[in-house]
Structures are given as structure tokens and as C-alpha cells.
Write a structure and sequence with these properties.
alpha+beta, NADH Oxidase, six-stranded antiparallel β-sheet, two-stranded antiparallel sheet, globular, Methionine synthase (B12-dependent), transferase, VitB12-dep_Met_synth_activ_sf, methionine synthase activity
Length: 303
């Protein structure tokens, strides 16, 4: 049963979400190419690790050994974090409709940007509102909102040890994303329940084989960080300890928020570079000055 009236808070321990970590992004943060992240899929016995190491060309084995050691230290750190670190998620399922390039979420206008980069297959320019039932239909649809965060205290761990501090920071980022993955699975199968029969392995989840999408703020289809203010009004992210700076950045840093869409045809895309006319239109819909809007959309403006 969908409850549109209130948000729901979920709390996870580290060991509950560790299996949902996408190690490719962890290793990327440390400067490793994706193939080195495969160490996370190797059985822990010495023989298996040795076989994995010697599967690399000789000139890459030192790098592979470095990845192996980093993974070992990351797992040791996860065991330590499990003692006193909790990850919290909040989500809300809202009545919503698409209205042009806007979403109308519980009466609040949530402006969006339409894709500007042509698709190679010639398909239409996309906007996230395309995947929500239009207001003109007279029938309400549902959009999910979410936020996840590691407790602020975790950002202070190992301040006196630069290596361990960086390690815990990169793990915190991955744990916030992993908790979001677990939360989204629960939403699809139970809370929203639009995919009750879903039965996917974690590797399948991590390559997004499920129905629907979960665009996070700051990602290519939802690039405007200022919409964090709108999400906060609708979701009240303070429930899980997230506060926003005057520029809409989230604190603690290891936090993520965004939308959940269920349409079977929904997919990710990049808005790309936008023209001055779209900046002016979007600023009007956001209720901001064009100059202020340019600051939030700097990465999408022509160089």
C-alpha cells in the first residue's frame, strides 16, 4: 500500500549494505581502471588471488597487487566501521504529473532540463518529465524522492592519518550509494511495489537491470544542484541529518539524493550543453535570476 502522506526512514548497518557496494567507483576514486576492481569478485583464498594476479600482463601486476592490497585494507576498514556507523535513508512516494519540462510533485513545481545532445539513433530529446503521466491526462502518477547519508561523525574518523582518512571518505561515499541501492530495491518490490516479482542478483542490480531509474542530483540528467532545496522541502532531509549549504551542497559530504521513476521505458541521458534561451526559460521556471542560474548550470553552459 503506497502511503503518500509521509516519508519513511530506513537505517542500515555497514554489513547490511556492504554487498551492494559498486567497487568500480571505489577503485576509480583511487585512480584504478575498472578491470582492477574485479578483485572484489575473487574468492578470498590465496590460490584464487594468485590466479587473478597472474591473469594480468607482467607490466600490470604491480598495479594489480596494489589494487589487491587496497581492497584488503578497505574490507578491514569496513569491519571497523560496522561497529559504530549507521547509514540512513529517507524516501517518499508522491502524487505527481509531468507538465511540459516540469514535474508537479504534490503541488510543487519541480523544473527540469531537456536533453540537448542529439541521440545517435535519432530518438527524441528526453526530459525526466517524459516518464511521468502528463497533467493533461487528469490521472495522477507517482514519483519517488530519496536521500541517503552517512552520519556526520564518520567524516571525522582518522583525521590524524591522511591515508586512512581518505580511505574512510571513499568508503563512506560508496556506503551511501550502496544503502540507496538496497533502499531502492525495497521500494520497487515492497513500498511502491511496482516490481514485486523482481529477483535480481546484486551484480544485476549494479548494472541497473531493474525497471525504472534513480537519477541523483548532480548527475547528467539532473544537473542542477539547486533542486536540492526543492527536494528538501518535499522530503525533509534533516530527518537523516542532511543539511544544505547556501549553494545547495549536502552535508555530510557522503550523501546522495534524487528521484525514483518507475516507467518501463525510463532511461538515463545527459542534458548536455544548453543555450541561453533554455537558461532563461529554466531560470524563470525555477524562480531565480538568470545570473544565479548560470552558476548552478556552469557545467552545462557553452565554453
Amino acid at each position: 500500500m503506497i502511503n503518500h502522506s509521509q516519508s519513511s526512514v530506513l537505517r542500515y548497518s555497514v554489513h547490511e549494505v556492504a554487498s551492494y557496494i559498486n567497487w568500480i567507483y571505489f577503485f576509480h576514486a583511487w585512480g584504478f581502471q575498472p578491470r582492477f576492481a574485479a578483485i572484489a569478485d575473487i574468492h578470498g583464498c590465496d590460490a584464487c588471488r594468485a590466479m587473478w594476479l597472474y591473469s594480468f600482463p607482467e607490466e600490470e601486476r604491480a598495479k594489480a597487487a596494489e589494487a589487491m592490497q587496497l581492497f584488503k585494507e578497505a574490507n578491514r576498514m569496513l569491519d571497523q566501521l560496522d561497529k559504530d556507523t549507521n547509514i540512513r535513508c529517507v524516501f517518499k512516494l508522491c502524487n505527481a504529473n509531468g507538465d511540459g519540462d516540469n514535474l508537479i510533485i504534490e503541488g510543487t513545481t519541480f523544473p527540469l532540463l531537456r536533453q540537448q545532445t542529439p541521440n545517435p539513433d535519432g530518438s527524441p530529446f528526453l526530459c525526466l518529465s517524459d516518464f511521468v503521466r502528463p497533467l493533461s491526462s487528469g490521472i495522477s502518477d507517482v514519483v519517488g524522492l530519496f536521500a541517503s547519508s552517512i552520519g556526520a561523525e564518520a567524516e571525522e574518523y582518522y583525521r590524524d592519518d591522511p591515508y586512512k582518512h581518505l580511505l574512510v571518505q571513499t568508503l563512506n561515499d560508496r556506503l551511501a550509494e550502496a544503502a540507496t541501492e538496497k533502499m531502492h530495491e525495497y521500494v520497487r518490490k515492497e513500498a511502491w511495489g511496482y516490481a514485486p516479482e523482481e529477483s535480481l542478483s546484486i551484480p544485476d542490480l549494479l548494472v541497473e537491470k531493474y525497471q525504472g531509474i534513480r537519477p541523483a542530483v548532480g548527475y547528467p540528467s539532473l544537473p542542477d544542484q539547486s533542486v536540492n532545496f526543492l527536494l528538501d522541502e518535499l522530503l525533509d532531509m534533516r530527518q537523516i541529518g542532511i543539511t544544505l549549504t547556501e549553494n545547495g551542497a549536502m552535508h555530510p559530504h557522503a550523501s546522495v539524493c534524487g528521484l525514483m521513476l518507475a516507467h518501463p521505458a525510463s532511461r538515463y541521458f545527459a542534458v548536455g550543453r544548453i543555450g541561453e534561451d533554455q537558461v532563461e526559460d529554466y531560470a524563470r521556471r525555477r524562480g531565480m535570476s538568470v545570473n544565479k542560474m548560470r552558476k548552478f548550470l556552469a557545467a552545462n553552459l557553452p565554453k
